[in-house]
Amino acid sequence: MKKAEVTAADRRDRQEMLRIYHERGPQTEKTLLAAGISLESQARNAPWVAEQIKLAEAA
After folding, report:
1. Cβ neighbours of 41 (radius 10 Å)
2. Can you tell me the distance from the alpha carbon of 41 to that of 8, in angstroms, rounded to the nearest whole number?
3. I need a surface site. Which of 1, 9, 39, 51 has the fewest CB within 10 A?
4. Both ends of the chain: CA-CA distance in Å?
5. pTM for this structure?
6. At 59, is the pLDDT very low, low, confident or very high (cuts 50, 70, 90)?
């Protein structure tokens, strides 16, 4: 199975989702949409963002 390549847009959205989380806490789909992150991008990138948050909190 080939590993999916992370696009520049996904990297940007991941960083933006993390930044928003650190500033304001957990967000809804609507607030992330308002921040310019599409539902498709949220679906692709939320697991990665959640893992980063989990790792940071465990440290």
Report:
1. 20
2. 12
3. 1
4. 32
5. 0.87
6. confident
